[in-house]
Every structure is written in C-alpha cells, then in structure tokens.
Write a structure and sequence with these properties.
The protein is mainly alpha-helical. The protein has six helices and six strands. Helix 3 crosses helix 4 and helix 4 crosses helix 5.
Length: 183
C-alpha cells in the first residue's frame, strides 16, 4: 500500500519536519493521530519492528519535530538555536537508538520502539548540522511549500522538494504562462 506521505528531503529528519505543510502560514499538520505517526515511520526507512503508541504520544513526536526544525533552521540561518530546542534535541539524541536483533530464522529485526525512532531522528539532525550536507539544504521554491531538502542534483540546481506536487505545479504554471503569452 502506498504511503500517504512523501519523503523528498534526502534525510529522515528533513522528511519529518516536512510533515507540517505551509509552515508559518496555514501550518497544515499531517501528524494528527498515532496512525499518521505510524504510517510516516513505516515509509521513512527507520526500521523498528516494535513501534507501538497511541494518540497520547503524538504531541511528543510533534514537539520534537518542532525542536528539530528550530535547530535546523538556526543552523541554516547561521544563528544559535534556542536553548529549549537544543535541550529537547539533545535529550532525544541521548536515548537508545534502534537495536538490531538476530531472529530465529536468521533475519535481522530492529527494536526500540518510539524512543528509538525519536533518538535516530535527533541524531540525524545533529549529524546533518555537523556535515557538509548542511550547505546543500534548500527550501522548496514553491511559494506554498516550506519543505527542506538536500540538493544532491548535478550542478546543485534543484528547486523543488520533489517533482510530484511542487515541481509539477511549477511546470504546469510555466506551460500555461507560455500558452497565454502573445506570439
């Protein structure tokens, strides 16, 4: 079954902070219930077989997401992140990450639950802040989109978070503008 979420960021933490659409204007929340969180984790590539939670856990996830966004935005803007954001991200990063376990059939399963997922996301953010990838992080050029992504395109000229949605809208608008222009 296809995921209800897109993952164009190039890093799990960028995909998580992108679960708020139109940040700063409409602030469309996409993680409204535990089922949304579970679906996002399932499609994110963060492998944890024992993920369990309830709607009561959603505020914890969204609070960390906002702290992660604050830390990343500050790093991109060349300023110091708020002490509250730093404290939240550091606390999550100190938690145990996903643990590989060898199953009876010789398969590898990852365990750790929600805490492991949050720790992995916080560590991904800190790794990004301390890596050359930070210089390649861009914000989508679509005026209605506020997603961040790592631009690994040839020539570093990627403009949209993804062609599905933002890129398609921009290309369609450019096509309509060309068709309306007098010849």
């Amino acid at each position: 079954m296809p995921s209800a979420f897109d993952y164009p960021g190039g890093r799990p933490v960028l995909d998580l902070v992108g679960t708020v659409a139109n940040r700063g204007t409409d602030d469309v929340e996409r993680l409204r219930a535990w089922a949304d969180v579970a679906a996002w984790v399932d499609g994110s590539g963060l492998l944890v077989d024992d993920l369990a939670g309830s709607d009561d856990d959603v505020p914890r996830v969204t609070a960390l997401r906002e702290a992660l966004y604050g830390v990343l935005r500050a790093a991109l803007d060349g300023i110091t992140a708020s002490p509250e954001d730093c404290t939240a991200v550091n606390a999550a990063a100190r938690g145990p990450g996903p643990t590989p376990q060898l199953g009876e059939a010789g398969d590898v399963r990852w365990t750790g639950g929600l805490d492991a997922v949050l720790a992995a996301l916080a560590r991904d953010a800190l790794d990004l802040v301390d890596s050359p990838d930070l210089g390649a992080v861009r914000q989508c050029a679509d005026d209605r989109c506020t997603r961040l992504f790592v631009d690994r395109s040839r020539g570093a000229r990627r403009r949209w978070c993804g062609m599905k949605g933002c890129g398609d809208r921009a290309k369609a608008a450019a096509y309509r503008a060309r068709r309306r222009a007098p010849t």
